[in-house]
Design brief:
The protein contains nine helices and five strands, in the order αααααβααββααββ. The protein is an alpha+beta fold and 280 residues long. The radius of gyration is 34 Å and the shape is elongated. The protein starts with a helix and ends in an 8-residue tail after the last strand. Bound molecules: adenosine-5'-triphosphate (ATP) and magnesium ion. Magnesium ion binds next to helix 7.
Length: 280
C-alpha cells in the first residue's frame, strides 16, 4: 500500500511548479482585485462630480429664471410708466394742434387725426407688451385677477373657450410673490401651448387648495402628443415645458404633464404653502 501511494503522488519538482503557479495566480487575482477597487473608486468619484455639476447647473438655471423675471419686471415698468406716458403726452399735443388746425386747412387736420390713431395704437401695444412681460396686476392685485385678465385677452385673441375654477381665493393670494409668479407663468405657457399645438376647443383651469399645498391643473381636449419622446428627442430645443418644470421645482413643487389620445393634455402643478404661512 505504502509503496503504491508513494509512486502515485507528485514528485518534489512538480510540487514546486504547482506552488509557483498558485502564487502567480494569487498575485494576478490580487492585481485584478486592486484594479477593480481603483475603478470602482474612480467611478464613485465621477458620479459624485457629475451630481455636483448637475446641482450647480440647476442652481444656475434657477438664478437665470429669477434674473429673467426681475428684468421683465423692470422693462415692463419702464415701458408702461415711461414710454406709455410720453406717447400719451404726444397725443394730447396732437389734440390741441387739431383744434388749432380746424381754422386752417383740412389736410393738416386729417394728418393730425391719422397720427393720433397711430399714437393710440402704440399706447395699446406698449400696454399689452408690458402686461405680457410682467403683469403689474400680479404684484398689485394678486394671482387670480392677473390670470383673469390674461385669460380674457387669450380668449379674445384665440377664440378658444376657457373655463377657470379658482378656489378659495384668500389662501391662494397668501402664497409668496415667487410662487404666484410661477403659477402665472405655467398657466401662460400651458395656454399658449394649447393655442399653438393642440387644435383644442376647450381648456379647463382648476386651482384646488389642500391642507399644505395647492394644485393647479390645465387640461385641453385637443390632439395629444408623446411627452417622453418629445422631451428626450435630441431635436427638442424648445424651452416651454422644460421652463415650466424648472420654475415649479425651483420652489420645491412638483410638475407633471400627461397626454393621451382621445383625452388631450393635462399639465399639473403642486406648490407647497410656506409652513409659516398663517391660516394655511
Ligand atoms: N397642449 C399640447 N397639445 C399638443 N401638443 C403639445 C401641447 N403642449 C406641448 N405640445 C408639444 O410639445 C412640444 C414641446 O412644447 P414646448 O412648450 O416645450 O415647446 P414649443 O411650444 O414648441 O416652443 P416654446 O419654446 O416657444 O414653448 C410642442 O412643440 C408640441 O409638439
Ligand atoms: Mg411652448
Amino acid at each position: 500500500m505504502n509503496k503504491s501511494s508513494k509512486t502515485s503522488g507528485p514528485c518534489p519538482t512538480e510540487l514546486t511548479v504547482v506552488k509557483r503557479q498558485l502564487r502567480q495566480e494569487t498575485i494576478r487575482r490580487k492585481t485584478a482585485e486592486d484594479k477593480l477597487k481603483d475603478s470602482r473608486l474612480h467611478y464613485n468619484q465621477l458620479l459624485a462630480q457629475s451630481l455636483l455639476m448637475q446641482e450647480q447647473l440647476r442652481h444656475l438655471s434657477h438664478q437665470i429664471l429669477l434674473t429673467q423675471e426681475n428684468e421683465r419686471k423692470h422693462i415692463s415698468r419702464e415701458l408702461h410708466d415711461e414710454i406709455s406716458q410720453i406717447l400719451t403726452g404726444i397725443n394730447v399735443r396732437l389734440a390741441a394742434l387739431k383744434v388749432e388746425a380746424a381754422a386752417n386747412t383740412g389736410t393738416l387736420k386729417r394728418n393730425i387725426i391719422s397720427t393720433q390713431r397711430l399714437v393710440e395704437k402704440s399706447v395699446a401695444t406698449v400696454h399689452r407688451f408690458a402686461c405680457e412681460l410682467r403683469p403689474a396686476m400680479l404684484d398689485d392685485l394678486g394671482l387670480i385677477p392677473a390670470l383673469n385678465t390674461f385669460i380674457k385677452e387669450f380668449v379674445q385673441r384665440t377664440g378658444l373657450r376657457v373655463d377657470f375654477f379658482p378656489m378659495p381665493k384668500d389662501k391662494i393670494e397668501k402664497l409668496d410673490s415667487l410662487k404666484r409668479t410661477v403659477l402665472y407663468r405655467v398657466a401662460q405657457e400651458a395656454l399658449n401651448n394649447v393655442d399653438k399645438h393642440a387644435h383644442a376647443s376647450l381648456i379647463n383651469i382648476s386651482i384646488q387648495v389642500m391642507e399644505n399645498s395647492l394644485r393647479m391643473e390645465i387640461s385641453d381636449n385637443g390632439i395629444s402628443f408623446n411627452v417622453n419622446r418629445t422631451l428626450s428627442s435630441k431635436r427638442h430645443k424648445r424651452l416651454g415645458i422644460i421652463g415650466m418644470r424648472e420654475r415649479v421645482e425651483m420652489t420645491g413643487g412638483t410638475f407633471a404633464i400627461e397626454s393621451e389620445p382621445e383625452k388631450g393634455t393635462t399639465v399639473s402643478v403642486q406648490i407647497l404653502f410656506d409652513e409659516s404661512q398663517p391660516g394655511v
